[in-house]
Amino acid sequence: MNRNHPLGLFAATLLTVVLMNPAAQAASHGAPPAQASAPAASADMTDAEVRKVDRDTGRLTLKHAEIKSLDMPAMTMVFQVRDKAMLDKLQPGTRVQFKAAHDGGKFVVTELKVLP
Q1: pLDDT digit string (tens) for 31-80?
Q2: Is 92 found in the same domain as 51?
Q3: DSSP label at residue 14
Q4: Domain that residue 22 falls in
Q5: What is the Cα–Cα distance from 84 to 89, expressed in whole angstroms?
Q6: Is the pTM above the cut of 0.85?
Q7: Of 40, 34, 58, nearest to 106 (Cα)?
Q8: Do 92 and 49 belong together in one domain?
Q9: Tally of CB atoms within 10 A around 110
C-alpha cells in the first residue's frame, strides 16, 4: 500500500479505524455489536431530590443532576408539572427520576417516577 498516494493514505486510515473499533471487530466476526448497559427508557430520565412541593401552583423544586436533553447542568430549580396529580405522593426529601421539557418559556416536568 502506497501511503504517499491520497487513496493509499485514506485506505490506511480506514483500516486503522476499523481495527481499533470493537463494534466493527465484532461485526466482522459475526458477533452482535455491544449493547448499552442501561435501558433506553431510563437513560433520558434525570435523578433528583424534591426540595419543595407547591400543590396550589403546580410547581416543584428539584435538586437535580445534569439534564442532558436540555443541555442543563446540575442545580436546584423550580419546575412546573404537566399534571398536578404528579405531586400527590411527593414531599421534601423524596428521591425521583424525571423528564422535563422547555415549553412556552417554562421548564415543565413531563414524566415523574418516585424512587424506592
Answers
A1: 444 444 444 445 689 999 999 999 999 999 999 999 999 999 999 999 99
A2: yes
A3: H
A4: 1-35
A5: 11
A6: no
A7: 58
A8: yes
A9: 15
Q: Which residues are within 8 A (CB) of 91 and not within 5 positions of it... i.e. 6 or more apart?
A: 50, 53
For 94, the grid coordinates are: 423524596
What element of type H or E holds 27? Answer: helix 22-28
CATH number for 82: 2.40.50.320
Phi, psi (rounded to 5 degrees) for 72: -120, 130
Side chain identity, residue 1:
M
- Output the CA angle 41-70-96, nearest 5 degrees: 50
Residue 22 has pLDDT above 60, yes or no: no
Cell output for 60: 416543584
